[in-house]
Amino acid sequence: MGMTTSDSRGPIGRRSFLRLGAGLAATAGLAACASGADPAGKRIAPGSPRVAEVERARRLAGARSTSVVLNAVSARVDLGGVEVQTWAYGGQLPGREIRVRRGEILKVELKNQLPEPTSIHWHGIALRNDMDGVPGLTQDDIGVGTSFTYEFAVPDAGTYFFHPHSGVQLDRGLYAPLIVEDPDDGADYDTELVIVLDDWLDGVDRTPDAVLQELKKNGMGGMGGMDHGSMPGMTMPKSELLGGDAGDVTYPHVLANGRTFRDPQAIEAKAGQRVRLRLINAAADTAFRVGVPGSRLRITHTDGFPVQAQEADVVLIGMGERLDAVVTVPAGSVPVLAVAEGRDQYAQVVLRTPAAQPVVVEDGLVKKLMALPVLMPASLRAAERVALPVKQPDVVHELVLEGPGDRYTWTINGKVYDPNDGLPIREGQQVRLRFDNRSRMFHPMHLHGHTFQVRADGPRKDTVLVLPGRSTEVDFKADNPGQWLTHCHNIYHGEVGMMSVVSYVE
Ligand SMILES: [Cu+2]
Fold this sequence. Notes:
Elements: H1 14-28, H2 49-58, E1 65-78, E2 83-89, E3 98-101, E4 105-112, E5 121-123, E6 147-153, E7 158-163, E8 176-181, E9 191-200, H3 208-218, E10 238-239, E11 244-245, E12 253-256, E13 265-268, E14 274-281, E15 288-291, E16 297-302, E17 305-312, E18 314-317, E19 322-328, E20 333-340, E21 346-352, H4 363-371, E22 374-375, E23 395-402, E24 411-412, E25 423-425, E26 430-437, E27 443-447, E28 452-454, E29 460-461, E30 463-466, E31 471-477, E32 483-488, H5 491-495, E33 499-504
Parallel strand pairs: 1-4, 3-8, 9-14, 13-21, 18-22, 23-26, 25-33
Antiparallel strand pairs: 1-2, 4-6, 5-7, 7-8, 9-12, 10-11, 14-19, 15-18, 15-20, 16-17, 16-19, 20-21, 23-24, 26-31, 27-30, 27-32, 28-29, 28-31, 32-33
The protein binds copper (II) ion (CU).
Copper (II) ion is lined by residues 410, 443, 488, 490, 493, 498.
Protein backbone atom coordinates (compact mmCIF):
# COMPACT_ATOMS: atom_id res chain seq x y z
CA MET A 1 0.00 0.00 0.00
CA GLY A 2 3.02 2.24 -0.17
CA MET A 3 2.57 2.61 -3.91
CA THR A 4 1.72 5.82 -5.65
CA THR A 5 -1.83 5.68 -6.92
CA SER A 6 -3.19 7.04 -10.16
CA ASP A 7 -5.82 9.06 -8.36
CA SER A 8 -3.47 11.09 -6.20
CA ARG A 9 -4.74 14.52 -5.29
CA GLY A 10 -1.71 16.54 -4.44
CA PRO A 11 0.57 15.23 -1.72
CA ILE A 12 -2.11 13.06 -0.11
CA GLY A 13 -3.60 10.44 -2.41
CA ARG A 14 -7.04 8.95 -1.86
CA ARG A 15 -5.62 5.85 -0.21
CA SER A 16 -3.36 7.84 2.09
CA PHE A 17 -6.37 9.90 3.04
CA LEU A 18 -8.36 6.82 4.01
CA ARG A 19 -5.40 5.54 5.94
CA LEU A 20 -5.16 8.77 7.87
CA GLY A 21 -8.90 8.70 8.53
CA ALA A 22 -8.83 5.22 10.01
CA GLY A 23 -5.77 6.09 12.06
CA LEU A 24 -7.40 9.12 13.58
CA ALA A 25 -10.51 7.12 14.40
CA ALA A 26 -8.35 4.58 16.17
CA THR A 27 -6.39 7.19 18.06
CA ALA A 28 -9.49 8.98 19.22
CA GLY A 29 -11.11 5.73 20.26
CA LEU A 30 -14.12 6.37 18.07
CA ALA A 31 -16.38 3.44 17.48
CA ALA A 32 -17.05 4.00 13.80
CA CYS A 33 -14.72 4.50 10.88
CA ALA A 34 -14.52 7.71 8.91
CA SER A 35 -16.87 6.59 6.16
CA GLY A 36 -19.85 6.60 8.51
CA ALA A 37 -22.74 4.18 8.81
CA ASP A 38 -22.54 0.73 7.31
CA PRO A 39 -26.02 -0.48 6.33
CA ALA A 40 -25.25 -3.74 8.15
CA GLY A 41 -24.50 -2.01 11.46
CA LYS A 42 -21.93 0.16 13.14
CA ARG A 43 -18.36 -1.05 12.77
CA ILE A 44 -16.43 -2.12 15.85
CA ALA A 45 -13.28 -0.07 15.20
CA PRO A 46 -9.79 -1.17 16.23
CA GLY A 47 -9.74 1.54 18.91
CA SER A 48 -13.17 0.72 20.34
CA PRO A 49 -13.62 -0.11 24.04
CA ARG A 50 -14.80 -3.64 23.18
CA VAL A 51 -11.41 -4.46 21.60
CA ALA A 52 -9.64 -3.30 24.78
CA GLU A 53 -12.09 -5.26 26.94
CA VAL A 54 -11.47 -8.52 25.04
CA GLU A 55 -7.72 -7.93 25.37
CA ARG A 56 -8.05 -7.49 29.16
CA ALA A 57 -9.82 -10.85 29.38
CA ARG A 58 -6.96 -12.43 27.40
CA ARG A 59 -4.35 -11.22 29.85
CA LEU A 60 -3.60 -13.76 32.56
CA ALA A 61 -2.80 -12.64 36.09
CA GLY A 62 0.97 -12.48 36.60
CA ALA A 63 1.70 -12.98 32.90
CA ARG A 64 5.35 -12.52 31.99
CA SER A 65 6.25 -10.03 29.35
CA THR A 66 8.98 -9.85 26.73
CA SER A 67 10.29 -6.61 25.24
CA VAL A 68 12.08 -6.41 21.91
CA VAL A 69 13.42 -3.50 19.89
CA LEU A 70 13.40 -4.02 16.14
CA ASN A 71 15.20 -1.83 13.64
CA ALA A 72 13.88 -2.00 10.10
CA VAL A 73 16.90 -0.98 8.06
CA SER A 74 18.36 -0.94 4.61
CA ALA A 75 21.30 -3.35 4.68
CA ARG A 76 23.70 -5.43 2.66
CA VAL A 77 23.19 -9.15 3.24
CA ASP A 78 25.01 -12.25 2.06
CA LEU A 79 22.68 -14.89 0.63
CA GLY A 80 25.52 -17.41 0.26
CA GLY A 81 27.71 -16.39 -2.61
CA VAL A 82 25.43 -13.50 -3.57
CA GLU A 83 25.46 -10.15 -1.81
CA VAL A 84 22.42 -7.93 -2.10
CA GLN A 85 21.21 -4.60 -0.83
CA THR A 86 17.79 -5.03 0.77
CA TRP A 87 15.56 -4.13 3.71
CA ALA A 88 15.70 -6.34 6.77
CA TYR A 89 15.02 -6.38 10.51
CA GLY A 90 18.31 -5.70 12.28
CA GLY A 91 20.09 -6.08 8.93
CA GLN A 92 19.73 -9.87 9.25
CA LEU A 93 18.05 -12.44 7.03
CA PRO A 94 15.75 -13.81 8.31
CA GLY A 95 15.29 -11.32 11.11
CA ARG A 96 16.18 -12.56 14.59
CA GLU A 97 13.55 -14.92 15.93
CA ILE A 98 11.25 -13.72 18.70
CA ARG A 99 10.44 -16.48 21.17
CA VAL A 100 7.85 -16.21 23.94
CA ARG A 101 5.69 -18.54 25.97
CA ARG A 102 1.97 -18.90 25.53
CA GLY A 103 0.08 -16.28 27.54
CA GLU A 104 2.94 -13.78 27.64
CA ILE A 105 2.63 -10.11 26.78
CA LEU A 106 4.84 -9.26 23.81
CA LYS A 107 6.06 -5.70 23.46
CA VAL A 108 7.92 -4.77 20.29
CA GLU A 109 9.18 -1.32 19.47
CA LEU A 110 9.67 -1.01 15.73
CA LYS A 111 12.02 1.74 14.63
CA ASN A 112 11.50 2.59 11.00
CA GLN A 113 14.83 3.46 9.41
CA LEU A 114 13.61 2.54 5.93
CA PRO A 115 13.05 5.10 3.18
CA GLU A 116 9.30 4.25 3.21
CA PRO A 117 6.50 3.95 5.77
CA THR A 118 6.12 0.44 7.18
CA SER A 119 4.14 -1.74 9.62
CA ILE A 120 4.28 -5.19 11.23
CA HIS A 121 1.61 -7.85 10.96
CA TRP A 122 1.83 -10.72 13.46
CA HIS A 123 0.81 -13.49 11.11
CA GLY A 124 -1.51 -16.07 12.66
CA ILE A 125 -1.72 -14.55 16.14
CA ALA A 126 -5.23 -14.05 17.55
CA LEU A 127 -4.30 -10.68 18.97
CA ARG A 128 -6.04 -7.39 19.75
CA ASN A 129 -7.26 -5.71 16.58
CA ASP A 130 -5.43 -2.41 17.02
CA MET A 131 -2.06 -4.26 17.07
CA ASP A 132 -2.70 -6.26 13.88
CA GLY A 133 -0.50 -3.98 11.80
CA VAL A 134 -2.61 -3.14 8.76
CA PRO A 135 -2.13 0.54 7.79
CA GLY A 136 -5.37 2.11 6.65
CA LEU A 137 -7.45 -0.41 8.58
CA THR A 138 -6.04 -0.97 12.08
CA GLN A 139 -3.37 1.71 12.44
CA ASP A 140 -1.55 4.58 10.76
CA ASP A 141 1.55 4.02 8.70
CA ILE A 142 4.72 4.00 10.75
CA GLY A 143 6.41 6.94 9.05
CA VAL A 144 10.01 7.22 7.97
CA GLY A 145 12.24 7.92 10.97
CA THR A 146 9.47 7.23 13.51
CA SER A 147 8.73 4.29 15.76
CA PHE A 148 5.67 2.40 16.96
CA THR A 149 5.29 0.02 19.88
CA TYR A 150 3.18 -3.07 19.44
CA GLU A 151 1.92 -4.61 22.67
CA PHE A 152 -0.39 -7.58 22.95
CA ALA A 153 -1.12 -10.82 24.75
CA VAL A 154 -0.11 -13.96 22.85
CA PRO A 155 -2.86 -16.48 23.51
CA ASP A 156 -1.83 -19.59 21.55
CA ALA A 157 1.37 -21.60 21.24
CA GLY A 158 2.80 -22.44 17.84
CA THR A 159 4.95 -21.46 14.88
CA TYR A 160 4.22 -17.98 13.57
CA PHE A 161 6.09 -15.19 11.80
CA PHE A 162 5.90 -11.46 11.27
CA HIS A 163 6.23 -9.20 8.26
CA PRO A 164 5.10 -5.76 7.07
CA HIS A 165 1.59 -5.22 5.72
CA SER A 166 2.77 -2.31 3.60
CA GLY A 167 2.93 -2.60 -0.16
CA VAL A 168 5.14 -5.44 -1.35
CA GLN A 169 7.73 -5.03 1.43
CA LEU A 170 7.32 -8.70 2.39
CA ASP A 171 9.12 -9.58 -0.85
CA ARG A 172 12.20 -7.84 0.49
CA GLY A 173 13.99 -9.22 3.55
CA LEU A 174 11.49 -8.04 6.16
CA TYR A 175 10.43 -11.24 7.89
CA ALA A 176 11.31 -13.23 11.01
CA PRO A 177 9.95 -16.18 13.01
CA LEU A 178 7.73 -15.72 16.04
CA ILE A 179 7.81 -18.91 18.11
CA VAL A 180 5.32 -19.32 20.94
CA GLU A 181 6.26 -22.13 23.28
CA ASP A 182 3.82 -24.39 25.04
CA PRO A 183 4.83 -25.65 28.51
CA ASP A 184 3.96 -29.16 27.28
CA ASP A 185 6.30 -28.96 24.25
CA GLY A 186 9.21 -31.35 23.91
CA ALA A 187 7.73 -34.74 24.75
CA ASP A 188 8.23 -36.12 21.24
CA TYR A 189 11.44 -34.41 20.13
CA ASP A 190 14.94 -33.61 21.40
CA THR A 191 15.75 -30.35 19.68
CA GLU A 192 14.20 -27.97 17.19
CA LEU A 193 15.13 -26.17 14.02
CA VAL A 194 13.25 -23.21 12.52
CA ILE A 195 13.44 -23.00 8.73
CA VAL A 196 12.12 -19.96 6.88
CA LEU A 197 11.63 -20.35 3.14
CA ASP A 198 11.62 -17.48 0.67
CA ASP A 199 11.75 -16.57 -3.00
CA TRP A 200 14.27 -13.84 -3.72
CA LEU A 201 14.81 -11.11 -6.28
CA ASP A 202 15.36 -7.89 -4.31
CA GLY A 203 18.68 -6.24 -5.02
CA VAL A 204 19.67 -8.78 -7.67
CA ASP A 205 18.39 -6.82 -10.61
CA ARG A 206 15.03 -5.31 -9.64
CA THR A 207 12.99 -4.47 -6.59
CA PRO A 208 9.58 -5.91 -5.70
CA ASP A 209 8.08 -2.48 -6.44
CA ALA A 210 9.49 -2.63 -9.98
CA VAL A 211 8.01 -6.12 -10.39
CA LEU A 212 4.61 -4.85 -9.29
CA GLN A 213 4.75 -2.01 -11.81
CA GLU A 214 5.77 -4.47 -14.51
CA LEU A 215 2.87 -6.79 -13.66
CA LYS A 216 0.41 -3.90 -13.78
CA LYS A 217 1.78 -2.75 -17.13
CA ASN A 218 1.98 -6.12 -18.84
CA GLY A 219 -0.97 -7.77 -17.17
CA MET A 220 1.08 -10.88 -16.53
CA GLY A 221 4.62 -12.03 -16.76
CA GLY A 222 6.94 -10.57 -14.20
CA MET A 223 9.76 -12.11 -16.18
CA GLY A 224 13.36 -11.05 -16.07
CA GLY A 225 16.02 -11.31 -13.46
CA MET A 226 16.98 -14.76 -14.73
CA ASP A 227 20.67 -14.47 -14.14
CA HIS A 228 21.53 -17.03 -11.48
CA GLY A 229 20.49 -20.62 -11.00
CA SER A 230 17.65 -20.52 -13.50
CA MET A 231 17.13 -22.92 -16.34
CA PRO A 232 17.46 -21.63 -19.89
CA GLY A 233 14.08 -21.31 -21.54
CA MET A 234 12.27 -21.52 -18.22
CA THR A 235 8.67 -20.40 -18.61
CA MET A 236 6.14 -19.23 -16.05
CA PRO A 237 5.76 -21.78 -13.27
CA LYS A 238 3.06 -24.43 -13.68
CA SER A 239 2.05 -27.15 -11.26
CA GLU A 240 -0.13 -30.19 -11.66
CA LEU A 241 -0.32 -30.49 -7.88
CA LEU A 242 -1.63 -26.91 -7.60
CA GLY A 243 -3.94 -27.37 -10.59
CA GLY A 244 -2.61 -24.58 -12.80
CA ASP A 245 -0.23 -21.66 -12.56
CA ALA A 246 2.27 -21.95 -9.72
CA GLY A 247 3.41 -18.31 -9.72
CA ASP A 248 3.32 -14.98 -11.55
CA VAL A 249 6.92 -13.89 -11.02
CA THR A 250 10.24 -15.56 -11.74
CA TYR A 251 12.91 -15.38 -9.07
CA PRO A 252 16.67 -15.69 -9.49
CA HIS A 253 16.97 -17.45 -6.10
CA VAL A 254 15.04 -19.36 -3.51
CA LEU A 255 16.30 -19.36 0.07
CA ALA A 256 16.18 -21.40 3.24
CA ASN A 257 17.10 -19.34 6.30
CA GLY A 258 18.40 -16.61 4.04
CA ARG A 259 20.82 -18.84 2.07
CA THR A 260 20.89 -20.16 -1.47
CA PHE A 261 21.36 -23.90 -2.10
CA ARG A 262 25.02 -23.35 -2.93
CA ASP A 263 26.09 -22.23 0.51
CA PRO A 264 23.42 -23.48 2.90
CA GLN A 265 23.15 -23.22 6.63
CA ALA A 266 24.56 -26.38 8.22
CA ILE A 267 23.32 -27.54 11.62
CA GLU A 268 25.21 -29.97 13.84
CA ALA A 269 22.96 -32.85 14.84
CA LYS A 270 23.41 -36.29 16.37
CA ALA A 271 22.35 -39.45 14.61
CA GLY A 272 19.09 -40.69 16.13
CA GLN A 273 18.16 -37.26 17.46
CA ARG A 274 14.54 -36.23 16.90
CA VAL A 275 14.40 -32.72 15.46
CA ARG A 276 11.22 -30.67 15.43
CA LEU A 277 11.30 -28.73 12.18
CA ARG A 278 9.30 -25.51 12.32
CA LEU A 279 8.78 -24.69 8.66
CA ILE A 280 7.60 -21.21 7.65
CA ASN A 281 6.88 -20.12 4.09
CA ALA A 282 7.63 -16.39 3.93
CA ALA A 283 7.75 -16.33 0.11
CA ALA A 284 5.70 -13.85 -1.92
CA ASP A 285 4.81 -16.05 -4.89
CA THR A 286 6.22 -19.55 -4.29
CA ALA A 287 4.94 -22.74 -2.68
CA PHE A 288 7.53 -25.33 -1.62
CA ARG A 289 7.67 -29.12 -1.41
CA VAL A 290 9.68 -30.00 1.68
CA GLY A 291 11.20 -33.35 2.57
CA VAL A 292 14.27 -35.04 4.02
CA PRO A 293 15.57 -37.67 1.58
CA GLY A 294 15.55 -41.11 3.17
CA SER A 295 13.58 -40.01 6.25
CA ARG A 296 9.90 -39.63 6.91
CA LEU A 297 8.33 -36.59 8.46
CA ARG A 298 6.00 -36.94 11.42
CA ILE A 299 3.69 -33.97 11.03
CA THR A 300 2.49 -32.56 14.34
CA HIS A 301 1.18 -29.02 13.70
CA THR A 302 0.04 -26.73 10.95
CA ASP A 303 -0.35 -22.95 11.26
CA GLY A 304 0.59 -23.25 14.93
CA PHE A 305 -2.11 -25.69 15.95
CA PRO A 306 -1.66 -29.41 16.72
CA VAL A 307 -2.97 -32.04 14.33
CA GLN A 308 -3.49 -35.77 14.70
CA ALA A 309 0.10 -36.79 13.97
CA GLN A 310 0.61 -38.12 10.48
CA GLU A 311 3.61 -39.46 8.57
CA ALA A 312 4.55 -38.15 5.17
CA ASP A 313 7.50 -38.19 2.78
CA VAL A 314 6.94 -34.70 1.45
CA VAL A 315 4.66 -31.78 2.36
CA LEU A 316 3.58 -28.80 0.29
CA ILE A 317 3.70 -25.47 2.09
CA GLY A 318 2.04 -22.45 0.50
CA MET A 319 2.83 -18.80 1.15
CA GLY A 320 1.87 -17.84 4.70
CA GLU A 321 1.48 -21.47 5.83
CA ARG A 322 3.52 -23.09 8.56
CA LEU A 323 4.09 -26.72 9.33
CA ASP A 324 5.84 -28.52 12.19
CA ALA A 325 7.27 -31.98 11.62
CA VAL A 326 9.56 -34.24 13.64
CA VAL A 327 12.34 -35.99 11.76
CA THR A 328 14.87 -38.48 13.12
CA VAL A 329 18.43 -37.59 12.08
CA PRO A 330 20.14 -40.39 10.12
CA ALA A 331 23.90 -41.02 10.32
CA GLY A 332 25.90 -38.70 8.07
CA SER A 333 24.70 -35.53 6.44
CA VAL A 334 21.24 -35.02 5.16
CA PRO A 335 19.56 -31.95 3.69
CA VAL A 336 16.12 -30.66 4.53
CA LEU A 337 15.18 -29.94 0.92
CA ALA A 338 12.68 -27.29 -0.15
CA VAL A 339 11.87 -27.48 -3.84
CA ALA A 340 10.08 -24.48 -5.33
CA GLU A 341 6.82 -25.79 -6.81
CA GLY A 342 6.71 -25.48 -10.59
CA ARG A 343 10.22 -24.02 -10.74
CA ASP A 344 13.58 -25.72 -11.26
CA GLN A 345 14.96 -24.32 -8.04
CA TYR A 346 15.50 -25.52 -4.52
CA ALA A 347 16.93 -24.45 -1.19
CA GLN A 348 18.23 -26.51 1.72
CA VAL A 349 19.36 -26.59 5.32
CA VAL A 350 21.86 -29.36 6.11
CA LEU A 351 21.68 -31.58 9.17
CA ARG A 352 25.23 -32.80 9.74
CA THR A 353 26.39 -35.38 12.24
CA PRO A 354 29.86 -34.62 13.64
CA ALA A 355 31.95 -37.13 11.63
CA ALA A 356 30.08 -36.59 8.37
CA GLN A 357 31.50 -35.34 5.12
CA PRO A 358 30.04 -32.14 3.71
CA VAL A 359 26.83 -33.00 1.91
CA VAL A 360 26.59 -32.88 -1.83
CA VAL A 361 23.06 -32.55 -3.10
CA GLU A 362 22.82 -33.96 -6.56
CA ASP A 363 20.00 -33.30 -8.94
CA GLY A 364 19.10 -36.97 -8.55
CA LEU A 365 18.17 -36.34 -4.92
CA VAL A 366 15.81 -33.54 -5.89
CA LYS A 367 14.26 -35.69 -8.65
CA LYS A 368 13.71 -38.54 -6.18
CA LEU A 369 11.99 -36.19 -3.77
CA MET A 370 9.79 -34.85 -6.54
CA ALA A 371 8.61 -38.38 -7.32
CA LEU A 372 7.32 -39.00 -3.79
CA PRO A 373 3.69 -38.52 -2.76
CA VAL A 374 2.92 -35.08 -1.35
CA LEU A 375 0.79 -34.31 1.66
CA MET A 376 -1.28 -31.11 1.55
CA PRO A 377 -1.66 -29.51 5.01
CA ALA A 378 -5.40 -28.91 4.51
CA SER A 379 -5.89 -32.70 4.43
CA LEU A 380 -4.67 -33.04 8.03
CA ARG A 381 -7.06 -33.37 10.98
CA ALA A 382 -7.03 -31.12 14.03
CA ALA A 383 -5.99 -32.70 17.31
CA GLU A 384 -9.17 -33.29 19.29
CA ARG A 385 -8.34 -30.73 21.98
CA VAL A 386 -8.23 -27.86 19.46
CA ALA A 387 -10.90 -28.93 16.95
CA LEU A 388 -13.69 -26.39 16.75
CA PRO A 389 -17.14 -27.86 17.32
CA VAL A 390 -19.12 -28.30 14.13
CA LYS A 391 -22.19 -26.09 14.15
CA GLN A 392 -24.68 -24.68 11.73
CA PRO A 393 -23.25 -21.28 10.71
CA ASP A 394 -25.16 -18.11 11.68
CA VAL A 395 -23.69 -16.31 8.71
CA VAL A 396 -22.07 -17.48 5.47
CA HIS A 397 -19.97 -15.19 3.31
CA GLU A 398 -18.98 -16.29 -0.14
CA LEU A 399 -15.73 -14.91 -1.54
CA VAL A 400 -15.37 -15.37 -5.28
CA LEU A 401 -11.71 -15.21 -6.26
CA GLU A 402 -10.98 -13.98 -9.77
CA GLY A 403 -8.14 -12.61 -11.86
CA PRO A 404 -6.05 -11.40 -13.40
CA GLY A 405 -8.17 -8.64 -14.89
CA ASP A 406 -7.09 -5.54 -16.75
CA ARG A 407 -3.88 -4.08 -15.39
CA TYR A 408 -3.34 -7.23 -13.34
CA THR A 409 -6.19 -6.83 -10.89
CA TRP A 410 -7.13 -9.77 -8.66
CA THR A 411 -10.55 -9.45 -7.07
CA ILE A 412 -12.85 -10.81 -4.38
CA ASN A 413 -16.53 -10.76 -5.40
CA GLY A 414 -15.60 -8.65 -8.42
CA LYS A 415 -14.09 -5.87 -6.29
CA VAL A 416 -10.63 -4.75 -5.37
CA TYR A 417 -9.82 -4.05 -1.72
CA ASP A 418 -11.60 -1.15 -0.06
CA PRO A 419 -10.95 -0.75 3.69
CA ASN A 420 -14.38 0.83 4.12
CA ASP A 421 -16.22 -2.08 2.56
CA GLY A 422 -16.62 -5.28 4.52
CA LEU A 423 -18.21 -8.65 5.10
CA PRO A 424 -20.29 -7.97 8.22
CA ILE A 425 -20.28 -10.39 11.16
CA ARG A 426 -21.31 -10.05 14.79
CA GLU A 427 -19.46 -11.10 17.91
CA GLY A 428 -20.55 -14.55 19.06
CA GLN A 429 -21.67 -15.72 15.64
CA GLN A 430 -20.59 -18.97 14.05
CA VAL A 431 -19.14 -17.79 10.73
CA ARG A 432 -18.49 -19.65 7.51
CA LEU A 433 -16.34 -18.27 4.71
CA ARG A 434 -16.60 -20.00 1.36
CA PHE A 435 -13.65 -19.25 -0.90
CA ASP A 436 -14.59 -19.97 -4.49
CA ASN A 437 -11.61 -19.90 -6.85
CA ARG A 438 -12.66 -19.12 -10.42
CA SER A 439 -9.16 -18.32 -11.63
CA ARG A 440 -6.41 -20.54 -13.01
CA MET A 441 -4.09 -20.07 -10.10
CA PHE A 442 -4.07 -21.24 -6.49
CA HIS A 443 -4.61 -18.69 -3.71
CA PRO A 444 -3.36 -19.12 -0.13
CA MET A 445 -6.24 -17.39 1.66
CA HIS A 446 -5.31 -15.97 5.05
CA LEU A 447 -7.58 -14.65 7.81
CA HIS A 448 -6.22 -12.22 10.38
CA GLY A 449 -6.93 -12.47 14.10
CA HIS A 450 -8.51 -15.94 14.11
CA THR A 451 -7.83 -19.53 13.23
CA PHE A 452 -10.55 -21.37 11.41
CA GLN A 453 -11.53 -24.99 11.07
CA VAL A 454 -11.12 -26.42 7.56
CA ARG A 455 -14.09 -28.76 6.97
CA ALA A 456 -15.73 -30.43 9.95
CA ASP A 457 -12.78 -32.80 10.43
CA GLY A 458 -9.92 -30.72 8.99
CA PRO A 459 -7.07 -28.87 10.67
CA ARG A 460 -7.16 -25.54 12.48
CA LYS A 461 -5.48 -23.04 10.20
CA ASP A 462 -5.21 -19.36 9.37
CA THR A 463 -4.05 -19.85 5.77
CA VAL A 464 -5.57 -22.35 3.39
CA LEU A 465 -4.74 -23.12 -0.23
CA VAL A 466 -7.74 -22.76 -2.52
CA LEU A 467 -7.04 -24.51 -5.81
CA PRO A 468 -8.29 -23.38 -9.23
CA GLY A 469 -11.90 -24.30 -9.95
CA ARG A 470 -12.43 -25.44 -6.35
CA SER A 471 -14.13 -23.98 -3.35
CA THR A 472 -13.04 -24.33 0.25
CA GLU A 473 -15.19 -23.69 3.32
CA VAL A 474 -13.75 -22.61 6.63
CA ASP A 475 -15.62 -22.04 9.90
CA PHE A 476 -14.76 -19.97 12.94
CA LYS A 477 -16.29 -18.50 16.05
CA ALA A 478 -16.46 -14.69 15.95
CA ASP A 479 -14.67 -14.10 19.26
CA ASN A 480 -12.19 -11.35 18.44
CA PRO A 481 -13.97 -8.09 17.61
CA GLY A 482 -12.50 -5.59 15.20
CA GLN A 483 -11.74 -5.15 11.52
CA TRP A 484 -9.79 -8.05 10.08
CA LEU A 485 -8.34 -8.64 6.66
CA THR A 486 -8.87 -11.83 4.77
CA HIS A 487 -6.65 -11.94 1.71
CA CYS A 488 -4.53 -13.88 -0.68
CA HIS A 489 -1.01 -14.37 0.67
CA ASN A 490 0.46 -14.11 -2.77
CA ILE A 491 1.78 -10.63 -2.00
CA TYR A 492 1.22 -9.37 -5.55
CA HIS A 493 -2.37 -10.64 -5.67
CA GLY A 494 -3.12 -9.06 -2.30
CA GLU A 495 -1.52 -5.75 -3.18
CA VAL A 496 -3.51 -5.31 -6.40
CA GLY A 497 -6.82 -6.00 -4.70
CA MET A 498 -7.39 -9.57 -3.51
CA MET A 499 -8.18 -8.51 0.07
CA SER A 500 -11.46 -8.01 1.95
CA VAL A 501 -12.38 -6.92 5.46
CA VAL A 502 -14.16 -9.31 7.80
CA SER A 503 -15.93 -6.56 9.66
CA TYR A 504 -17.40 -6.94 13.16
CA VAL A 505 -20.45 -4.73 13.49
CA GLU A 506 -22.80 -4.06 16.38
CU1 LIG B 1 -3.82 -15.18 -4.97
